[in-house]
Amino acid sequence: MAVEQLLILIKPDGIKKSLTGNILTKLSEARMVIIGAKAVKVSKELAEAHYYQLKDKLFFGELVDYIQGKIYGEPYDRVLAFVYQGEDAILRMRKIAGATNPEEADPVSIRGAYGRITTKGVYENVVHCSSDQLEAAREIKLWFKPEDIVKEIYPTKKITVEKEAKTIWT
Ligand code: UDP
Ligand code: MG
Questions:
Q1: Beta-sheet pairing, 79-87 with 33-40
Q2: Is the pTM of this model over 0.90?
Q3: Quick one: pLDDT at residue 1?
Q4: All domains of the chain, ordered by start, with CATH?
Q5: Average pLDDT per 10 consecutive residues for the chain, totaling 170 residues
Q6: Which of 17, 111, 154, 157 could cross-link to 98 by cystine, CB 3.0-4.6 Å?
Q7: Residue of 91, 123, 130 best suited for mutating to test ligand 1, as the one with most atoms within 8 Å of CB
Q8: For residue 83, what are the contacts with CB-CB under 8 A and spacing of at least 6?
Q9: How far apart are CA 83 and CA 122, in angstroms?
Q10: In angstroms, what is the span from residue 128 Cα to ligand 1's centroid?
Q11: Rounded to whole angstroms, how far apart are CA atoms 113 and 126?
């Protein structure tokens, strides 16, 4: 048994269907802790980087639009991103999330209960769940800054950035 971290996203269809509470309740059954959480408007660059392994698939363009919430628009064009930590977190959370294809997923899993296949053939499966530890580390570093996570889970270093424009509260 190993303590693992993973990235969970509540995708725009989950937001649109008002499933945030249900999804977090189902995930909480695994007794994992949340060590990072935020709402994100997903840029095209972030979407493409997140799904880079699927870039040669015919559905890649649709997938990028989907994770950006393009078809839903304001106020659903966003995702909720979470970093979870716990024993064997990846396998256990993926079991609760269910299989990629919502029609094949266990009906009691999140994807089985709430997912659908669109008329364009995209699996709108409500949540993203990292698939292994390497992918989890890549994804967490892509979506979160070190200071957005309440624990230091990966090595960090200090750098000095000069003349960088920053937005602060007035
Ligand atoms: N996807 C799809 N059609 C497919 C395979 C994947 O629409 O034939 C979408 C689906 O939303 C999935 C995402 O692409 O969650 C990423 O695919 P992956 O194979 O990584 O599945 P996951 O790890 O999300 O179960
Ligand atoms: Mg995957």
A1: antiparallel
A2: yes
A3: 78
A4: 3-148 (3.30.70.141)
A5: 96 98 97 97 98 97 98 96 98 98 98 96 97 98 98 96 93
A6: 111
A7: 123
A8: 5, 6, 7, 8, 34, 35, 36, 37, 140, 144, 149, 153
A9: 25
A10: 9
A11: 10
